[in-house]
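Thread: quick sanity check before group meeting

JM: Hey all, I'm pulling together slides for Thursday and realized we never actually wrote out the predicted structure for the chain we discussed last week. Dropping the sequence here so it's in one place. If anyone has concerns about the input, flag it before I start.
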Amino acid sequence: MWRPPILLVLCLRWRLIIALLILLTVIASVAFYFIYKPKPPNYSVENMSIKGFNFEGVSSSQSDLTFSPEFDVTVRAQNPNSRIGIYYEKGSNVSVSHTDTNLCSGVLPDFYQPRNNVTVFETVLKSPSLKLSQVVRDALYDQQKKGQIPLGVDIKVPARVKVGSIRTWKFTIRVHCDVIVDKLAVDSKIVSKKCSVDPKIWMN
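JM (edit): ok, ran it. Output follows.
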């Protein structure tokens, strides 16, 4: 009587185990959505203090200028879920950009946010040596004279959900904020702001 090789049997068993694990993960994810009805957290940029930019006396012909910008950014995070806590873990990245030019970057603090909670925190973003093209410098200078400087704030942070005493899988929260400030200074004021969260937050 013919018998399949032992390696073939082991391979088929492992494939079956993997398929069952995938099926159980899908079932658990669907159950999580239907039972807890998770809502995405909300974010907003509350304040932005800016150092390291000085365009006074700068000639448009100067091409070798180097800046060392520092942005002190205050972020408000709201967890609207009544049954879910959120762990913000290490490995985050926060950056501020103007058009397609990255101005500075940094990280968020790692912390736990309880259910139905609002947490306000500050993060310092820096760039030790930033060279701006003449086009970008001219645009920033003109926009500062008008009191309307558009900036983009991008947040990417690994997180986990806490349900009861259980921590779930790790996922990535991605946030983009369009912020307009009146000037690149320590006492800058936010003219307008709008943040959006990646709608696939629980699936990535």
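AS: nice. DSSP finds two helices and twelve strands in the chain. Residues 1-36 form one domain.
JM: adding both to the slides.
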